[in-house]
Amino acid sequence: MRFWQLSLRSFKEIYRDTLALGFLLAFPLMFMLLFGAAFGGDTTPSYTIGVIDEDQTTVSQSFVSEALASVPTIEITTFTETNTALEQLELGDLRAYIVLPEGFGEQVLLSWQDGEADIALNITYDESDLMASEQIIASINTATRAFARIEIPVTINANPINIETEITNIDYIAPGIIIFGILIMIPTSARIMLRDKENRFLSRLLTTPTRPWEFISSYSLSLVAIAITQIIVFILLGWLFGMDIVGSILLAFLIFLLTAICSIGVGMVVASLTKSENQGESLSWLFSMPLAIVSGVWFSVEFMPSYIQTLAYAFPFSHAVDAARAVITRGVGLEAVGGDLVFLAGWAAGIFILGTILFGRTMRS
Amino acid sequence: MTGRAAKATEVNDTFAIETFNLTKIFDSLVAVDGIDLAIKKGELFALLGPNGAGKTTTINMLCCLLKPTGGTARVMGYDINQEPYKIKEVIGVSPQETTLSERLNALENLNLIGRLHGINPRKLKTWSKLMLETMGLAERAREQVRKFSGGMKRRLSIALALIHNPQILFLDEPTLGLDPQARRAVWQYIARLKGDKTILLTTHYMDEADFLADRIGIMDEGKIAALGTSVELKTEMLATHTMIVQAWNLTQKVVSEMRSRYAQVEVDKGSMTISDQRLDFKEIVDQLHAFGAIVRSAHIKEPTLEDVFLKITGKGLRE
Hints:
Chain A has helices spanning 2-16, 18-38, 58-68, 82-91, 104-114, 130-148, 169-183, 185-198, 201-206, 212-240, 249-273, 277-294, 306-312, 316-330, 334-362; strands at 47-53, 74-79, 96-100, 120-126, 155-161. Chain A is an alpha/beta fold.
């Protein structure tokens, strides 16, 4: 098959260019080391919080509908049972849920009367997102104190889930950095095709009866081989730095692989639209860097304005970051990330069809 | 439909390549300006012209690398606009730049192009070996081609164009940048292919076209300015003969006397160039002596393709 011959050729070209190959692996690794150690975030997020009102008094209801609803960083969803809320938390649809215990209203009334009370809240939250958890607890604490008109801190009975796992920063950051490394496949992919375009070898190949889809799939296949190597190296390095994959490693690998295929596809589109390595590389970075930022690679997407979030979720990388984090830090299965996988696969197929069409159009220009 | 336009739809078995008002315009630049060519099967046809004349653009359209802006062409009976993949199956192309996969070795390059043309591996192995031996590259077969010299790359480039035994061979400036020895080696190989394959060669070296081509098309500013065999083209020049004389004492009187007798007389230091429809060597030498000049040497200049080009276009090939 022609595409197989072309793939072998591309793979040999990449493999024998040791400097470029080294760069291909070293560049994202360097980012993983630097950003993994250094990054955090401090803007205003919006978290979805579940509330179970076991007290069912006028005061507790007023606390939910007035005090909690007015906190700008959280959105309230009410539940009647803790099991349902826990399920939602595990699926990643909630960031935390609060249980208002019986007697909550009584304690608040006491506080209003003489300023002394023993107000307690039970919060169960996703410990894997350390930054978000801290912000949620702090926000609820402040809202409760304002509502009860007390100066002293409220007793928060924290109940982090996944308590059997020692979650570290690297667990949270690593999936994002791996996706960033995979995003860098966009300029790499574009560069590999554009090098052939610029040194005119592609012109020679175009004098053979090879079809556009064979060109696109051959370049991609060789790059997928590189991507697989990259993903394995990333995961190994993550382990070395203490990343703990709670869920299925195969599922995490599949998410990364589909993301890599999307990146390669974008690279093919860029290469089809441009004529030189310089043009292609500039366009690739112009596209991939902002995309990395808005896709939640370094900052949670929830920190961003809603229109940015809408834009981010139109591309596959935000879905990939969410799904990879859910699998690695919360151990969710296929049922929880299936939608993201379908989106990634659909995007990969779409971008390859687009790449093939564009390449076909530029073949005789 | 009438004339050439009607012929564009008729398949003619005599010709390997036919172009019908073939035109390519890049923005406002007319690179190829409505050329009509008919190249017979087995013929070696050279497109001769300076850089920018439109030779490579013509080849690129015939190889289906560029879409024509107007007109069309048939390559082995296939229309370049309608059947590009059919054409790609029967052509071999050696582009102007020595485009090779630099980190593959010579054998791997040949295997790649051969397999893309659908040649089975066993046959390809035999052909590759033969081709490398023919091109004098057998000893370097397993060396990455980035380490090759320009001449070796050029020979390999031609081998790549031939590896699938195509019916038509396009050679775009096959000896560009080669030293005289390497050029001669490439010429000898191309000469061996004559008759067996139809070859369309572009060059701006007139000696190359003169030595190799059955017919020559002189191209200038996107048009075929003249067409014929080397002898036919030079015959046009034979209407005017040129004699060059080296002499002492070329005084104003000598020059005036000669100018009164011949159509064109140019003097540069001790050299006089005389051109006219009829020149008699002995008569001119005698006349010069009679007018007081002392002739040191004299010869009749043979017309070259460069002269033909100069006459047709009014400029030199390298301008």
